[in-house]
Specification:
The structure is a single chain. The chain has a domain at about 525-645: GMP Synthetase, Chain A, domain 3. It has 20 helices and 29 strands. A 7-stranded mixed sheet has the order 12-11-8-6-7-14-15, with helices on both faces. Strand 25 and strand 26 (about 525-530) form a beta hairpin. The structure holds 5'-O-[(S)-ethoxy(hydroxy)phosphoryl]adenosine. 5'-O-[(S)-ethoxy(hydroxy)phosphoryl]adenosine binds near residues 388, 390, 416, 500 and 517.
Length: about 650
């Protein structure tokens, strides 16, 4: 096979040590934490597990029969009890758990005591409908307080939730309901999106008609839109909870009982139901919340601006923050509604201290211009996080400077739906961060970058990212398909080596740089070049707002690089600028990385979660018939692009 990714094509030299004042107060500021965890990983995780409230203590930390792990064997606990009752019992009932901000501007603040009561009422209602331990409940809700309430109510009674992102189609809901065999779905009369109402109940009705599994639907009134309620099947949430008792004993759960299923897309059409369990998952998200986000329960206002429909929201809006008694912001809407400064207005109003978002959002803010954050005082922000894709150094620098005021550490956190929690990341009080690098493993985690033969690569080289030691938040299997679990993740390099599907390189200091999915790695003249590195070089050009790069087949070089570029502000694309950008990449990386084609476009095709659809761009670049694009957030851009690329060669 071909040689691993070219080493240090584009190596970022700047480093950002933690400011002294930050390090002095940080939850982790002694580098010996790494040695301590390395000396006894199981003991390290057990020590974090013991910070939770167990109804029965565990007697064995780990049983590892690759590829199946069991953590905290014999232990019993309840996730909702840990996220709510534990804090209320300790006297923090009055503390705000969520400052919720609706898109139209309505607000709600929920204290830990209020959240516990609401969760208990709804848990009783679910029990009343016959939902019990182990039953699957589909949740198809927008970002309203009832979404975390529904998840926690399931957790309280031991039901397994399967949250389906509200931006997904009704067909996606059907697929997930069928696969998990869910009998109950929780939805809303509608969802707000940039001033419009998305008819969620209608989608749900369509889904229910297309599957024979759903017996009960529960509908939250959010927009007041008129909806069809079918007697006997559909129930209003507010009617169900009114009159319910706020007493609802939390079900003792085995550490290995399933907490939730979350579907993610794989290489085939059928979504994969990632299974997460109770004790290990909660331990992992709580430990990372505390150490990576340096969370101070008494003073921070934390905001993870993801959607709960994705794993980032499960782990770092709901379970991690609540396990650590955080006060969080929960925002329903879009970042540019009604204005492009909506986030900064919210951040300022609540005095947000920690912000966690994705590079794609950061690049959108860059494109809109620094004047929007500048209109608001963001001096409360003391820590920034990034997740979801490699962050190009320019976006890192912009984030650091314009949102973090030049002194808030930035943590670039690598992880996946499958890993449950953060795996590779700086620790903000210890690590000297390099813009664009996720840097080092979280203590106790063992990533190894390997070559085609599965051998560790030397420093300065690239290869495939693997994980070679079990961790508590790891998925346990794929729902109903253990064979696919084994085959997808544990067969490429050996039965006890987890293959993440990402390319990575180790720099000369041994720091880890994520290169994107390996299916996004191009091979040009026998050299493997990451789409990310070329994108990063393009975005480094002052006229470029965002870039997506893909390979297309080329007779001479195997693959040739095609770059799709959106420009900043009023810039116009033309041949001269295309040539300039090709040269710019050649300068930053080397001639071998120079794009064969540069295509200008007003927007890039993206999934509803904001990931650029590179597969689609590849189809466009190679002039192929385009498949179904209905899951895109902006399907109309695809037609424009295919027209422009037809003459673009
Ligand atoms: C990518 C999101 C580089 C990666 C939590 C991974 C990243 C996939 C980073 C998982 C990062 C996530 N740097 N790449 N900091 N974080 N990724 O399951 O390709 O939606 O495999 O989980 O996102 O996406 P998922």
């Amino acid at each position: 096979m071909s040689e691993p990714a070219i080493a240090n094509l584009y190596s970022e030299q700047r480093t950002f040590p933690p400011p002294e004042s930050f390090a002095a107060q940080a939850n982790a500021n002694d580098p010996s934490i790494y040695e301590e965890a390395e000396a006894d990983p199981e003991g390290w995780w057990a020590q974090h597990a013991r910070q939770l409230r167990w109804m029965r203590d565990f007697d064995t930390v780990l049983e590892w029969t690759p590829p199946h792990a069991k953590w905290f064997i014999g232990g019993e606990l309840n996730v909702a009890d840990n996220c709510l009752d534990r804090h209320v019992d300790a006297g923090y009932g009055e503390q705000i758990a969520f400052y919720w901000e609706g898109e139209p501007g309505d607000t709600r603040a929920l204290s830990y005591a209020e959240l516990k009561d609401e969760v208990s009422r709804f848990a009783n209602a679910l029990r009343g409908l016959g939902v019990g331990k182990g039953d699957r409940v589909a949740i198809y809700l927008p970002m309203i307080p009832e979404l975390p309430v529904a998840m926690l109510a399931c957790a309280r009674i031991g039901a397994i939730h399967s949250v389906v992102f509200a931006g997904f189609s009704s067909q996606a809901l059907v697929d997930r309901v069928d696969d998990a065999d869910a009998r109950v779905v929780i939805t809303a009369d509608g969802a707000y999106r940039k001033g419009n109402v998305v008819p969620l109940k209608e989608s749900t009705d369509k889904a229910i008609a297309a599957t024979d599994r759903i017996e009960t639907s529960i509908v939250v009134r959010r927009t007041g839109a008129e909806v069809d309620m079918q007697a006997g099947r559909d129930h209003w949430y507010h009617e169900l909870v009114s009159g319910q008792s706020t007493e609802c004993p939390a079900e003792p759960m085995d550490a290995e009982d399933v907490l939730y299923i979350l579907y993610t897309s794989g290489t085939t059409g059928k979504p994969k139901g990632i299974v997460h369990t109770t004790g290990g998952y909660l331990t992992h998200v709580a430990a990372t919340q505390r150490l990576v986000f340096d969370l101070k329960a008494d003073s921070d206002v934390y905001w993870c601006a993801a959607d709960i429909g994705w794993v980032t929201g499960h782990s770092y809006i709901v379970y991690g923050p609540l396990a650590c008694r955080a006060t969080s912001v929960l925002y329903e809407g879009a970042p540019d509604y009604p204005g492009k400064d909506r986030w900064w207005e919210i951040a300022n109003r609540y005095g947000v201290t920690i912000l966690y978002t994705a590079p794609t959002a950061i690049r959108a803010f860059m494109k809109w211009g620094a004047e929007y954050p500048q209109e608001h005082d963001l001096s409360s922000i003391r820590l920034l996080g990034s997740v979801g894709e490699p962050i190009n150094p320019e976006a890192w620098m912009w984030y650091h400077q314009h949102i973090g005021g030049g002194n808030a550490p930035v943590v670039d956190t690598w992880w996946q739906t499958e890993t449950g929690g953060i795996m590779i990341t700086p620790l903000p009080g210890i690590t000297h961060a390099k813009p664009g690098s996720a840097m080092v493993p979280f203590p106790g985690v063992k990533p190894v970058v390997v070559d085609d033969a599965g051998e560790p690569v030397p420093r300065g080289s690239g290869g495939y990212l693997t994980l070679q030691r079990p961790w508590p938040g790891m998925m346990r299997t794929l729902w109903g398909d253990d064979e696919r679990y084994r085959h997808t993740y544990w067969s490429s390099f050996g039965p006890d080596v987890y293959f993440a599907g990402d390319g990575a390189k180790l720099d000369e200091d041994g720091h880890i740089w994520l290169l994107g999915r390996v299916d996004d790695v191009m091979n040009v003249s026998g050299h493997r070049i990451s789409t990310t590195e070329v994108e990063s070089a393009l975005v480094d050009h002052p006229k470029v707002a965002e870039a997506a790069v893909t390979g297309r087949k080329d007779e001479l070089t195997g693959e040739a690089i095609v770059a799709f570029v959106t420009l900043r502000g009023a810039e116009e694309g033309n041949d001269e600028l295309a040539a300039e950008l090709r040269e710019h990449v050649a300068e930053r990386i080397g001639k071998l990385a120079r794009p064969a084609n540069v295509l200008f476009t007003p927007d890039l095709p993206k999934t509803r979660s904001g990931k650029i659809m590179r597969r689609l761009l590849k189809d466009i670049a190679e002039g192929r018939e385009l498949g179904d694009v209905s899951t895109l957030a902006n399907a109309d851009i695809v037609e424009e692009l295919s027209k422009s690329s037809a003459g673009g060669d």
